[in-house]
Amino acid sequence: MSGDIAAPRPAQRSAAIWLAGSAMAVGVWFIVYRQLVPFSEWAVALSPLQPGSAAFEALKFFLYDTPKVLLLLTLVVFAMGVVRSYFSPDRTRALLAGRAEGLGNIAAAGLGVFTPFCSCSAVPLFVGFVSAGVPLGVTFSFLIAAPMVNEVALGLLFALVGWRVALTYLVFGLGVAIISGWVIGRLKLEGWLEPWVLKIRVDAVDIKRADLTIIDRIRSGLEAVKDIVGKVWLWIIAGIAAGALIHGYVPADLLATIMGRDAWWSVPAAVVLGVPMYSNAAGIIPVVEALLGKGAALGTVLAFMMSVIALSLPEMIILRKVLTIRLIAVFAGVVASGILVVGFLFNTLF
Amino acid sequence: MKEIKVLGPGCARCGKTVDMVREEAARLGVAVTVEKVTDFAEIAGYGIAATPGIVIDGKVVHAGGLPRVEDLTAWLSA
After folding, report:
1. pTM here?
2. Cα gap A78→B26, rounded to integer Å
3. Which one of A180, A193, A203, A261 is least enclosed by Cβ atoms within 10 Å?
4. Where are the domains of chain B?
5. ipTM of this complex prediction, to 2 decimal places
6. What CA–CA distance (Å, rounded) separates A145 from A179?
7. Chain B interface mutation, best of A119, A142, A205, A319, highest count of B Cβ atoms under 10 Å
8. Which chain A residue's Cα is nearest to B69?
9. DSSP 3-state assignment of A40?
10. pLDDT per residue as tens digits for the range A279-334
11. Structural domain B2-77, CATH architecture
């Protein structure tokens, strides 16, 4: 017995090594992160630009924000990769199957935040949910929340713009997903699905999976970093460049006029503008940060961000395989209305 | 001869999964046929909610994300 204590099993020992390695990596991360301000000041001073000029400010914003956002994104994605290993679409579906609407919509939106989801598997997921007896409206609540209120968007919003805006986004994003899904469920649009979808009635498979060890979970965090950061870093740099231009060149009173709270039409304009724009949540947040800094109203900016992320043309085209055009139009209309309400509400209240 | 189907609409991970299955089968010296299933109706018929999925001799063993190599070894040598 005492041998167990003196010499831990190899599995335990390697788990300890992985944990210690992760802790050390996080430590290094913090040290690097603290050097960002001096780094950007040093780097921008090397340029021949005049301090205080628009180009200088734009460059400084870019040099500070790029490493900052990439570092934050890496940490957030890693942490969420670990958290997400506790969730899976199959388990979420099992939790939601046969749920009554109302409570089901709330659960679906909440699970949408954490369940791993990529828009490339939106169709199998949709069919898998509906055929296993998850109500249509509940499925939509999940499908709206999963891309819109995702953990990367929340993490970055929290880090760059502050916890108030992040919390606001979480609450109202979930609200839009819950209510939109509930409305779609009330409308009883099952007949507007493509006919083949309704013919499929299978029992959800029960996949026995080996219990994941802590090493597997750390690995899935690293896997997520490789996967997501590798995929979105270009979007982010483009987003930061756009943010830097706004920061340096756009006069504050111009934005306050066209995106301020007095311009009521700016909210619908932001929603319409957001639909054809397809950006990852991570790319849009530096733009959000810069817009807010220049006096754009919070409601207008939130509406823009939600529209870009939740109403994407490519995803609608993918969903066309399972939904009729009428149903896609209802889906887009209901979600857009929800976003409009959020935008107006915020501009009126704050 | 194991009959393996990889379910997935053609995303990057689905192709990677096919490669992983082939490689592991070759390493173990197990004879397999690997078929890609890309039709949405057929994928849904297996009752999975996330892709890529793996079906071995008619039984779904995996759904969602890349499989672990250890699991592949276990499935293929079973």
Report:
1. 0.80
2. 33
3. A203
4. 2-77
5. 0.78
6. 11
7. A205
8. A216
9. helix
10. 666 778 888 888 888 888 888 988 988 888 888 887 888 888 889 999 999 999 99
11. 3-Layer(aba) Sandwich (3.40)
